[in-house]
Amino acid sequence: MAAVLRFVNRTCFGSRMGLQCLSLSRPVAVAKLVQDGASAGKTLPERVKIVEVGPRDGLQNEKTVVPSEVKIHLIDMLSEAGLSVIEATSFVSPKWVPQMADQVEVMMGIHRRPGVSYPVLTPNLKGFLAAVNAGAAEVAIFGAASELFSKKNINCSVDESLQRFEVVTKAAKEAGVPVRGYVSCVLGCPYEGKVSPDKVAQVAKRLYSMGCYEISLGDTIGVGTPGGMTEMLQAVSREVPVNALAVHCHDTYGQALANILIALQMGISVVDSSVAGLGGCPYAQGASGNVATEDVVYMLHGLGIQTGVDLPKLMDAGAFICCSLNKKTSSKVAQATCKL
Amino acid sequence: SWVKIVEVGPRDGLQNEKTLVPTEVKIHLIDMLSEAGLPVIEATSFVSPEWVPQMADQVEVMKGINRRPGVSYPVLTPNLKGFQAAVKAGAAEVAIFGAASELFSKKNINCSVDESLQRFEEVTKAAKEAGVRVRGYVSCVLGCPYEGQVSPDKVAQVAKRLYSMGCYEISLGDTIGVGTPGGMAELLEAVSREVPVDALAVHCHDTYGQALANILIALQMGISVVDSSVAGLGGCPYAQGASGNVATEDVVYMLHGLGIQTGVDLPKLMDAGAFICRSLNRKTSSKVAQATCKL
């Protein structure tokens, strides 16, 4: 906790010294920002794929555990809402993640909509085999851009974790199962503080080279701002083609939509989000985590970008899961609409 | 790079909160905001207390605040009478509110947009004579709760009128927060054809979570003045329970992260936010405050 406080103090409590350092180190980002303005709105993608992580990332990070039927119904409602990728569950050992203990039941219980993908997390070969056995047709692996985070989260170095994943991607290749790679802490780490964009690029490159079809870059503690996002994406897109990149922004500091917007301007066309903004921040008690899918969709549709998502149906799914969790939605669009 | 933040919490914020706070609390809030380095703090409103009882202590507030050198404390003045009362109470800057929607104007101040502008011309004339600066606001620039879509050209016309009659700055308000960055870009293109971009400000509401994205695109288009409200004070009168003003803390966090200077001391700003939320007995709407306080 102390480490987190120090980190927050360094980056958020902008003392005059801190501000000056920031402004000295970021004039390039600002100039680019204004430059981008010249073509603002003209370089946005026509279509954006939304990767819905609510049922896994969301529910895993909620205090209340929901019954399997609720999870299944949520996933079915999300399928109905037109989402094309819905992260269904996780094949991490239930010892570590009890909320996902019903992984097999969920995989067997959901109604798979044609054309929709239901990826699941697989931390290692054992998890991968169990996942395929349970019917998974796509899996996801998680790397980190921070050594300390890797150590604290999965008890090994970044390199060791990547070696472990290579075993998974090999097996997946043989089984014809696509693999999605995640990189955590791309804009900051709760333990290390600042994270170098080049480190992120290295990890992303490794995941891509070992066979991941897409790399999702996660601002795990939501501390990133658009300048940092720009810098990071510039570094990563030198190693991985931009159409194989996705952004996974957390809204802990309210920066998610601004970060997503700048990512879109830089050619990103895949965005991760969580219905109703499910999933708090494990590093800042009570703070929010995932950005709400409803709010992302609202922005994208307002920009004239297609997503295939039916917003009212999506909001129904959000209302359903919030009811089941007995919690208020974190989506502003849902808050605004429900009250009218 | 520099962005001027216009802090509207003590007026726009408190006016739209259910709970009324005592005068001492308002004064203390404004003093804390001055300490936090904000260069412009909207202090109160000289609209008749009959309409806005929350601002009935307007004179007391003006007399009670510690004016920090270099900081401006504008007040709202809906007409000449309000203007005169404001100046008498010590106001050195005033603000007037036009709308880009006829229906909104009718429902809000019971006259057409044109009639309201004529009324304001009296104020700007008097203000010019008295050497008092006037800031103009345009409401409903990205949508109206009654009319729905609002034409960017209509906004541009109203902004142009306000600018021509002497307002030094025009704040464009997304009153119900429905705007998205594409609409913001379109709007600013239209308005900046009539008013120089350095005389424009954006006043984004976060009702649909779009505020920071809208502000970002405005910055990209050369806007360098942003309105916001400490702790995100001020709900949305048109969507019960929904949020309204964007939180100053969240705006400052983004700007500082971008390397843009604001003169604001974020920890002191958060202290001010914590103070007013305690007094209002409500949780902050600022995500930065939520993230930081819980640690």
UniProtKB/TrEMBL annotation, chain A:
Broad enzyme group: lyase
SUPFAM superfamilies reported in the protein's UniProt record: Aldolase
Organism from which the protein derives: Oncorhynchus mykiss (Rainbow trout)
Name assigned to this protein: hydroxymethylglutaryl-CoA lyase
A Pfam family hit: HMGL-like
Domain of life (superkingdom): Eukaryota
Pathway membership: Metabolic intermediate metabolism; (S)-3-hydroxy-3-methylglutaryl-CoA degradation; acetoacetate from (S)-3-hydroxy-3-methylglutaryl-CoA: step 1/1
Domain Pyruvate carboxyltransferase: 48-315
CDD domains referenced in this protein's UniProt entry, alphabetically: DRE_TIM_HMGL
Record-stated family: Belongs to the HMG-CoA lyase family.
GO biological process terms held by the UniProt record: ketone body biosynthetic process; L-leucine catabolic process
A GO term, aspect molecular function: metal ion binding
Catalytic activity: (3S)-3-hydroxy-3-methylglutaryl-CoA = acetoacetate + acetyl-CoA
UniProt KW keywords: Lyase, Metal-binding
Gene symbol of the encoding locus: LOC110505425
Enzyme Commission number(s) of this protein: 4.1.3.4
Automatic annotation (TrEMBL), chain B:
Biological-process GO terms, alphabetical: ketone body biosynthetic process; L-leucine catabolic process
Key words of the record: Lyase, Metal-binding
Statement: the UniProt record of this protein carries the keyword Lyase: yes
Pathway(s) the chain acts in: Metabolic intermediate metabolism; (S)-3-hydroxy-3-methylglutaryl-CoA degradation; acetoacetate from (S)-3-hydroxy-3-methylglutaryl-CoA: step 1/1
Keyword DNA-binding: no
EC identifiers of the protein: 4.1.3.4
Reaction(s) this enzyme catalyzes, per UniProt: (3S)-3-hydroxy-3-methylglutaryl-CoA = acetoacetate + acetyl-CoA
Matching InterPro entries: Aldolase_TIM (IPR013785), HMG_CoA_lyase_AS (IPR000138), HMGL (IPR043594), PYR_CT (IPR000891)
Occurrences of domain Pyruvate carboxyltransferase (ranges): 3-270
Uppermost EC category: lyase
One GO MF term attached to the UniProt entry: metal ion binding
Protein family (similarity comment): Belongs to the HMG-CoA lyase family.
Protein name (Swiss-Prot/TrEMBL): hydroxymethylglutaryl-CoA lyase
